[in-house]
Amino acid sequence: MHKMFFSLCFRTSSKAVGLLCILSLTGGLASGQTQVDPETALRMLNAQQQQFDKGVVKVADNVFTAVGFHGANTSMIVGTDGVIIVDTLFGPTSAANAAEAFRQYSDKPVKAIIYTHSHGDHIGGGSAFVGDEKPEIYATESFGSAEGVNKAVDPVKQKRNIRQFGRQLSPSEITNRGVAPAGTEDSDRGKGFLPPTVTVPSSGLKTTIAGVDIEFHIGPGETDDAMFIWLPKEKVLFAGDNFYSSFPNLYAIRGTAYRDVLNWSESVGKMAALKPRVVVPGHTMPIQGSQAATEALTDYSEAIRSVYEQTVRGINAGKGPDQIAHEVKLPEHLKDKPYLIEFYGTVPHAVRAIYSGLLGWYDGNPTTLSPMEPKLKARKIAELAGGTQNLTEQMNVALAEQDYQWALELSDHLKWLDDGDSKRARKVKIEALRGLAAREYNAPNRNYYLSYANELESGKLSELWF
């Protein structure tokens, strides 16, 4: 029955129907549980791939969005004597391809470029859209603060970024990036960036560009320097990265400063209050139709706030982040929404980020105030198991029984032991990581597991695997 239904579901060209089929097959998805059987995980990720099918989507008579030309979206608003570009992709190569696709709808000069925020995949290709006439370039007062002030840890963030997005995975391993296709052209990153020339004040801005009435609304969320763009006549909303079709990445595993979750929820709520006819996300397909667009934004805002409020209740009940991360769930009426499936962000990651963002690393339990250093703890765990050999056997049993997370944790203890089989520990970790990856429909998790396994296998990582 399931195999026949799978075939029916994934022959459909409808993105919404495809995702609804997934939800039917899985009986709905419990938030915070992104592990399913390998066949389902792969089919889910393949269905999500439809969200970035390459092409130009007409969202209004004078508004066009290019999807799938890189990881993010770029949009063109056609005015009387020129066009406005919203976000410019990652570099001039991808941007030039999108610009060429836009030309079938208008060859008017670019009068303005708008950056919804300063993440590199939205700002790197501006030069490809510009001719002899230099446009005004709009951004917020805080433009450039997307990653906080943690440049001191850029070396390790770059490594973790590669893992999160699967940038070095083979074609047979890579699926996608949750809200973006894999295999994007990244060699010219940022080479087409054009610096802002017009600063949008903290109060926002209402103006007319090329005969188009346009509003700039400050909307911190995924970044502190974000804004959303509103076309009041067309009722088209450009959400930037505060909305896309996946549970939001309230924390990125590559490493980010705290993203203010309440601000994010409030910003999306303000978008919903506009009741747009179309919402154009920073990634994935536009959502068209007033009811669908408004409902998606309303649900998104509620989902973020619910995770925040549940986490705070857990904190005030004296619970630590590990426990809360396993307890917080999306409300029942939201968990099956296609745009809240955890393809990119996850609820447990969000819980941990909220906890550390509000309280820091300490969970309040005196046991964790000064924990043992890893090597000493590993020795005591081995003693508890009845010796290093017994610990090794338990690790092997966990792997054989496909208890992959436990196998990982035991391998991490074994690696510290002087009398342990470090080669076996490494091999088990590699196999367990690949086992977890096969079951993951959360793209960053899947990519990170596979990337780390490959680094271990190639010898790129030290004996301690950091």
SSE layout:
Layout lengths: L1 H10 L3 H12 L11 H11 L6 E6 L2 E5 L6 E5 L4 E4 L5 H11 L7 E5 L5 H4 L12 E5 L13 H12 L32 E3 L4 E5 L2 E7 L8 E5 L4 E5 L20 H13 L4 E4 L5 E2 L1 H27 L4 H7 L19 H13 L14 H12 L2 H13 L3 H11 L7 H18 L3 H16 L8
Parallel strand pairs: 4-5, 5-6, 6-7, 11-12
Antiparallel strand pairs: 1-2, 2-3, 3-4, 8-9, 9-10, 10-11, 12-13
Helix pairs in contact: 1-2, 2-3, 6-15, 7-8, 8-10, 9-10, 11-12, 12-13, 12-14, 13-14, 14-15
- Average of per-residue pLDDT values: 92
Cα radius of gyration in angstroms: 23 Å
Low-confidence segments, given as residue ranges, are: 1-14
Elements, N to C (H/E):
HHHEEEEHEHEHEEEEEHEEHHHHHHHH
Strand order of the largest sheet: 1-2-3-4-5-6-7
Q: Give the termini separation.
A: 45 Å
Shape: elongated
Major β-sheet profile? 7 strands, mixed
Give the domain tally. 2
Stated plainly, the CATH topology of the largest domain is called: Metallo-beta-lactamase, Chain A
> Helical proportion?
40-55%
Instruction: Identify the CATH class of the largest domain.
Output: Alpha Beta
Number of strands: 13
